């Protein structure tokens, strides 16, 4: 018998310390745990209970005015295959009837038409049903510096309106919160006062119960002490109001060089409260003296910051959000009696801004940031177009690949060989979980197409799926 050099070692004991350091799968990979695809920041002075619904209506109006059908919509966003779509209204209308009657048949015969029509209709449905997924009532950059009397008044009115919004399904947002001013010396006292007034009034109007997925956003964070102070303030508030410790979540804004260096310490100081980190590209780049005409989401300084955020915060299960597109899809010319030239110029400006936002959202998702900011309701059109296009364009090919991985893994485990493409398989599974979460496709569609069971998909782990199959 061959001598075994390690036979006297307790392997489980040897690996025990390492096992304790391994993080569980992040909640973003759990199909039962939703992640928002965007966040809308709006000044606290403007917030009303029906703000989410009204923003959706404005977005729909913009879509109706500047993209009359699915072809014009596809060409505005430069959707894949848009150049192959028909140009004449009667042909477009006939194709719309065919798509509505038998979309699967048209998908096989004319994928480009099915692709554009599906994204167009999904976008319209989303804007009608749930235009806002995450809303941040803003007392910082989107609000400005006001007198204490003004800000006190807006704390009370905005918190009351948020509570009222929970009484009407059409105005509820799955995620919400408010952004206070920074803890820098000039604004720290005002930030604490706003925090106290808003939370106290909101809790009172909610009969002592806070919302799920509710956050307090802390901007311009630099050092861990700032997160520790916010945690202590929230601990005191929870204690005074009979809430459980840790019930109020924290979200941090990464927009300073110090925050990049101290990121993990900041999150740690917030204890288990920190659930998300948003990147502020324009404050960040301006801190290096980068001039306004060169500040944009794809600047190398921003790419570096996002990579650090991914490397340091993703393993901790922190949800990441990219920054904002500053070019707004608004018309150049206002009024009712516009000339033909002015109408054409308005369309051109709107579509240019849509396309830029569409490209920025797509680029963020490619680089692992599945949430980013919207500042204007008309940006929602490009937002959902980009999200649905990202997932639907790749769905069939990714499903084919994942089925192939399942077959390869089954064969490898049966023959005792190691499966060496695990990372790719996990990435494919994550693609489908995120696609379900955002509504690009349904869970049942994924189950049917890939051949998974509901419990396998819910496990959110390719390893677990294969281990359970092998045991069976």
Instruction: Give the spatial strand order of the biggest sheet.
Output: 7-6-5-4-3-2-1-8
Q: So what's the CATH class of the largest domain?
A: Alpha Beta
The value of Rg in angstroms is 25 Å
Please indicate the percent range of residues in DSSP E strands (runs of 2 or more). 5-15%
User: Total domains, how many?
Assistant: 3
Shape-level CATH architecture of the largest domain: Alpha-Beta Barrel
Whole-Å distance between the termini? 33 Å
Which fold does the CATH topology of the largest domain refer to? TIM Barrel
Q: Determine the structural class based on helices, strands and strand pairing.
A: alpha/beta
Average pLDDT metric: 91
- Count up the helices: 19
Q: Which word captures the global form?
A: globular
Could you spell the SSE succession in H and E letters? Answer: HEHHHHHEHEHEHEHHEHHEHEHHHHH
* Oligomeric assembly: single chain
- How many beta-strand segments? 8
């Amino acid at each position: 018998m061959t001598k075994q050099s390690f036979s006297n070692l307790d392997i489980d004991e040897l690996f025990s310390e390492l096992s304790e350091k391994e993080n569980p799968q992040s909640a973003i990979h759990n199909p039962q745990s939703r992640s928002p695809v965007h966040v809308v920041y709006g000044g606290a002075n403007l917030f009303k209970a029906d703000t989410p619904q009204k923003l959706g209506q404005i977005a729909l109006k913009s879509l109706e005015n500047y993209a009359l059908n699915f072809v014009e919509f596809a060409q505005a966003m430069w959707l894949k295959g848009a150049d192959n779509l028909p140009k004449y209204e009667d042909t477009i209308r006939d194709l719309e009837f065919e798509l509505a009657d038998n979309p699967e048949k048209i998908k096989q015969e004319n994928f480009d038409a099915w692709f554009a029509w599906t994204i167009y209709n999904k976008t319209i449905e989303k804007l009608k049903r749930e235009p806002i997924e995450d809303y941040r009532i803003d007392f910082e950059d989107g609000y400005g510096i006001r007198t204490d009397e003004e800000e006190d008044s807006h704390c009370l009115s905005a918190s009351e309106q948020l509570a009222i919004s929970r009484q009407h399904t059409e105005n509820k947002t799955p995620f919400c919160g408010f952004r206070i001013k920074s803890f820098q010396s000039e604004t720290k006292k005002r930030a604490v006062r706003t925090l106290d007034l808003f939370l106290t009034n909101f809790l009172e109007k909610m009969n002592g119960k806070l919302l799920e997925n509710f956050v307090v956003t802390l901007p311009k964070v630099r050092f861990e002490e700032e997160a520790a102070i916010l945690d202590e303030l929230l601990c005191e508030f929870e204690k005074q109001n009979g809430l459980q410790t840790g019930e109020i979540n924290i979200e941090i804004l990464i927009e300073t060089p110090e925050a990049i260096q101290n990121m993990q310490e900041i999150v740690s100081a917030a204890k288990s409260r920190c659930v998300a980190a948003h990147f502020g590209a324009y404050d960040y780049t301006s801190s290096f003296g980068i001039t306004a005409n060169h500040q944009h989401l794809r600047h190398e300084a921003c790419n570096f910051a996002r990579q650090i955020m991914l490397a340091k915060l993703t393993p901790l299960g922190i949800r990441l959000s990219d920054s904002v597109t500053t070019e707004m899809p608004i018309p150049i010319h206002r009024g009712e009696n516009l000339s033909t030239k002015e109408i054409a110029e308005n369309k051109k400006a709107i579509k240019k801004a849509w396309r830029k936002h569409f490209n920025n959202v797509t680029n963020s998702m490619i680089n692992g940031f599945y949430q980013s900011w919207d500042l204007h309701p008309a940006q929602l059109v490009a937002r959902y177009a980009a999200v649905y296009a990202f997932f639907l364009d790749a769905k069939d090919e990714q499903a084919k690949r994942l089925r192939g991985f399942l077959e390869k893994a089954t064969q490898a485990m049966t023959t005792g060989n190691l499966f060496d493409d695990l990372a790719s398989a996990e990435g494919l599974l994550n693609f489908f979980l995120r696609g379900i979460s955002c509504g690009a496709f349904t869970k049942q569609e994924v189950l049917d197409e890939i051949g998974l069971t509901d419990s396998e998909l819910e496990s959110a782990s390719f390893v677990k799926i294969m281990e359970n199959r092998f045991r069976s």
